[in-house]
Amino acid sequence: MIYQGSCHCQAVRFEVEAPAVIAADRCNCSICSKSGFLHLIVPRRDFRLLTGEQNLSTYTFNSGVAQHWFCKVCGIKPFYLPRSNPDGIDINVNCLDTQPAHIQVTDFDGQNWEQHAHNLAHKSRID
To answer: What are phi and psi of 41, to 5 degrees?
Structure first.
């Protein structure tokens, strides 16, 4: 299925191809829990930025590998380049304008990321 998504003000719009039933991860690390990010990691080929590239700002921390993209206008982070899957894109399911019929949410221990990151590595692989 193709899902449409955006930031709050819709200055940044995107689409992502994902299954009808979304397998999402809820991370307990500080940035994810404070921002309410619900993770859907997909291969880059399944993501397309439609509008708003000029409205994106990047935030990095810790290792500097993950690139968190925020809308400069409204401050929402609709997607980012994850450290666990540098060949993929991590979509905030909460930013999908067309909601999936069903979302299966799995808790992920991001507070202990180094011990658990390998559990996410397969998510951006192309079968």
So the answer is: -95, 130
CATH code for the domain of 97: 2.170.150.70
pTM check: above 0.85:
yes
Q: How, if at all, do strands 102-108 and 21-27 pair? A: parallel
The total number of residues written for the chain in this structure = 127
pLDDT tens column, 98-120: 889 899 998 887 787 778 777 88
Domains: count for the chain: 1
